[in-house]
Amino acid sequence: MREMVGGCCVCSDERGWAENPLVYCDGHGCSVAVHQACYGIVQVPTGPWFCRKCESQERAARVRCELCPHKDGALKRTDSGGWAHVVCALYIPEVQFANVLTMEPIVLQYVPHDRYIKTCYICEDHGRESKAACGACMTCNRQGCRQAFHVTCAQMAGLLCEEEGPEADNVKYCGYCKHHYIKMCDSLPLLGGVLQQRKMRSSGENTERGSFGHSRGGSTSPAQDKHGSHHHRLRKVSVLCIVVYILSLHLTIAWCGLYWCICMNAQILSLSLRFHSESQGQGEAKGEA
Ligand SMILES: [Zn+2]
Ligand SMILES: [Zn+2]
Ligand SMILES: [Zn+2]
Ligand SMILES: [Zn+2]
Ligand SMILES: [Zn+2]
After folding, report:
1. Looking at the whole model, is its pTM more than 0.70?
2. Domain extents for the chain?
3. Relative to the alpha carbon of 146, which ligand is closest?
4. What's the CA gap between 100 and 108, in Å, rounded?
């Protein structure tokens, strides 16, 4: 996707990390760059690396995404022998990965027919009417908005997000129409929250190889734990640890203080009782005298 925002073809982030490097395809004339975890590369080879499209002997003209009209970008095989973008697979909710670790093949059979009927408003806006009806569309994440668009069209327009799902360790892949994206940005101080999260992911994904699963939750759940969500979970857990630590520290201090108070009070009480009884004893002695 040459005209696309730089960096990873899947998440658009330009940064790489030691545990999750940006890997560049060595295929002739191929501009694919992907994070190891964004493309499901289990082991990064020390020598040249080729994306699946360059690896296959299929004629380039035949390799096209079944979910959108764009041809460049990071593609994988579908279970029916075709091709689809990894990013298209992530953002169309019903698409699954047969193997969540290698993120292939891409399973399209659960995508409802409805998605293939919708037309992409971004294609229409750009005068690509013939392509608007290609593939499948995602819809604006704002409730009530019916704008539909291709995942890659939204990616090129910078309208894709990763939001925290209903469960803490879930990532919801979603996008907004331009109108609602701008509205959402305006409502977020310092472009925080959602947009921040979009950039925050990916580092450290390799430390828990086994669990950076792209497994989907129940099919009824809107949450899409398809990919790379445990970074959020790690962050959450560490924050939780710090909070618990501070709380327990406070509690300990409070208990110590309370204990000290009780001791002091008891001491004062016993002292004053002794004093009282002594003075009373003296009084009685005086009285007898
Ligand atoms: Zn990436
Ligand atoms: Zn390639
Ligand atoms: Zn696509
Ligand atoms: Zn489009
Ligand atoms: Zn919208």
Report:
1. no
2. 65-228, 231-289
3. 5
4. 14
